[in-house]
Amino acid sequence: MISVAEALEAVLALGAPLDIEEVDLAEADGRILAQDVQANRDQPPFAASAMDGYAVPSTDIKPGDTFKVIGEAAAGHRFDRSVSAGEAVRIFTGAPLPDGAHRVVIQEDTTREGDVITLTDPLDSGHHIRPAGGDFKRGDKMESPRLLSPADIALLASMNIARVPVRRRPVVAIIATGDELVSVGETPRDDQIIASNSLGLAAMFRRAGAETRVLPIAKDTVSSLEMALTLSEGADLLVTIGGASVGDYDIVAEVASGVGLEREFYKVAMRPGKPLMAGRIGDRAMVGLPGNPVSSMVCGEIFILPLLSKFLGMPSGPRARIEMPLQGALSKNGPREHYMRGVITNGAVSVARRQDSSLLTVLAQANALVVRPPHAPACDSGDVVEVIPL
Ligand SMILES: Nc1nc2c(c(=O)[nH]1)N[C@H]1C(S)=C(S)[C@@H](COP(=O)(O)OP(=O)(O)OC[C@H]3O[C@@H](n4cnc5c(N)ncnc54)[C@H](O)[C@@H]3O)O[C@H]1N2
Ligand code: MOO
Fold it and tell me: Domain named MoaB/Mog: which ranges (predicted)?
């Protein structure tokens, strides 16, 4: 059996950054920016008022000073002449500052009679002027790779970038295997269960930027599985679930090698997730996950999310770990790296009492995996452990 680190390295070697495509900015949220983009304008493009009030020439004015109002500047409507000593221009937030003006006095600090305003209050410390290019300047870059957020979308819009170069989404085909499985919403026989992993994994992969194809459930027969494998053609990554262990009906390895799987490894010193396999079928990467629901979800977190990052041209490597004090004691670990379902509360992590890899209720409550190295000694409450937040 290889270590988790060796298995991850082999899984990552199955993928490479996908090609770049252009999408409308409106479609770019959650996509990975694949090339640096540059602003082709300054923002704001002119010195602008930050407040509603009066633009005046001098910064050296005091309560009691009066000014003749000679015109108006509103957002989208520049005042074309300049303003001189003793004059003011009525101005609104976002309007271009007229030539000659060096500060904006907020209207609350003035009184107005006809065309004349009088400064009534001591001046604020700020000039209430947003300088041209104060947010960004022409040529400023948004650097790639970058997961585009709603704030990024607003910034790119402000830069007037209507089409955005992004990494193509990896297409992941997901095949659940097993005669005992029926799709959610169907009526199972009394010896059947619902295929849960495929939908859980699809949700996980979509959140990570993939496009998913949940294929029909394959029966535990060579022909059914072969058919499902054929349907996965064209995907960047094929993920099978179940049928990976040593039972008589665990036929994924055999059928996949029949259709050309070049296997990189089978079995990892990890818990849950021991019967994991990975390799390549034609031009698609293949990861065979164990069927136990928690095993498949944990392997998705530990192996497939980093692989999706690689496809997307993002930094890819082991999931980030943090150190945290343990709440409660743990007995010594066995020979496999153990990814224990746990809950972080108030800066400490507690490990769920039941760690069986069939328990989705426990996984759904967990917000962390506590990672215990092979043969780790017993630990006490307060000892520091490594944690992968989920
Ligand atoms: N003699 C041994 N038996 C087992 C070993 C072993 O080393 N020697 N390993 C155990 C471990 S660890 C795991 S993990 C499981 C993995 O087995 P498979 O990958 O072959 O998975 P299945 O047998 O097909 O299913 C296991 C379990 O999970 C349920 N399942 C499967 N697919 C789904 C799905 N899509 N959604 C929900 N539940 C699913 C299935 O009904 C079984 O209950 O093998 C151990 N055995
Ligand atoms: O290794 Mo299995 O995945 O423990 O349940």
Answer: 173-310
